[in-house]
């Protein structure tokens, strides 16, 4: 399978730069895989597509304010994206550092000089404090690179799902951004169970695949956990032949990793066409960038031809794309 098979053209003006004020008023494209039918509605109408005995699986990871703005001792702005904390005595992170000309052992100043970080290796920074909460209090929401603006106060609310609980992601599980507490209540009232799992999303979610033969691509490992309560709900739904709705590609990958016998740890599962889904019956997802593992996953779930047809219809109808964009339900 060639990477070029998973490409499409998107007008730049369809990339959503801001969230909608009301989360559940996003548009929803509903794709029926068996009949090849496409319907259009508003996200809050998703309740009409559930049945008693279904299970809705939500990723409760919480996005960390991992984007820091500092300055060099000699002047000049420095931007950091903290990717992961490294073990050891000091508070050290793998990080993306811009500009790249910042030198090894150079100090970066934060909060008017009260805190500083030292570049201790390529793409690594060690802070003068060991209090991680102090660092994250300086941080901003790490918006995706295709949102061409600085993070604002509203992003602390809207780039986080309402059920986010477990800190650890540097990107949001964006399919879940459309859910409100009232919508979840309505879904429950229809006899649908809710299961919360955790997968911490790494920055690699935005990286395009580099190898032309997609089977040669290696996924970055991401931590996931499916606790006992979630396991029981998943197992019960599966045995009773109810439908399992995965909210987002992260929930889908967690479910399919669980189907292989793993309950927690690190997953590098790469789902591409030919993959046999064992746990995911329906998928709720946003629209994804071309040539990415996320787009490849939805092609595996619904078929490349049908997904491209749905994406083209979404483009023709001026849907909003990517993290702050509209949504798709694949049944």
3D structure, described in words:
By secondary structure, this protein is an alpha/beta fold. The protein folds into 2 domains: 3-63 and 153-330, QueA-like (3-Layer(aba) Sandwich); 67-137, QueA-like (Thrombin, subunit H, Beta Barrel). The chain has helices spanning 132-137, 153-158, 181-189, 228-239, 249-259, 293-302, 304-316, and strands spanning 27-32, 37-42, 55-59, 61-63, 67-72, 77-86, 91-98, 107-110, 115-121, 124-127, 166-169, 193-199, 222-225, 244-247, 264-267, 282-286, 327-330. The strands form 3 sheets. The chain has a 9-stranded mixed sheet. A hairpin with a 4-residue loop joins strand 6 and strand 7. The longest helix is centred in the last third of the chain and has 13 residues, at 304-316. 37% of the residues are buried.
Strand residues, percent: 25-35%
What's the CATH architecture name of the largest domain?
A: 3-Layer(aba) Sandwich
Instruction: Supply Rg.
Output: 20 Å
The oligomeric state is single chain
Helix content: 10-25%
Walk me through the topology:
Layout: E1 27-32, E2 37-42, E3 55-59, E4 61-63, E5 67-72, E6 77-86, E7 91-98, E8 107-110, E9 115-121, E10 124-127, H1 132-137, H2 153-158, E11 166-169, H3 181-189, E12 193-199, E13 222-225, H4 228-239, E14 244-247, H5 249-259, E15 264-267, E16 282-286, H6 293-302, H7 304-316, E17 327-330
Parallel strand pairs: 1-17, 3-12, 3-14, 4-11, 14-16
Antiparallel strand pairs: 1-2, 5-6, 5-8, 6-7, 7-10, 8-9, 9-10, 12-13, 13-15, 16-17
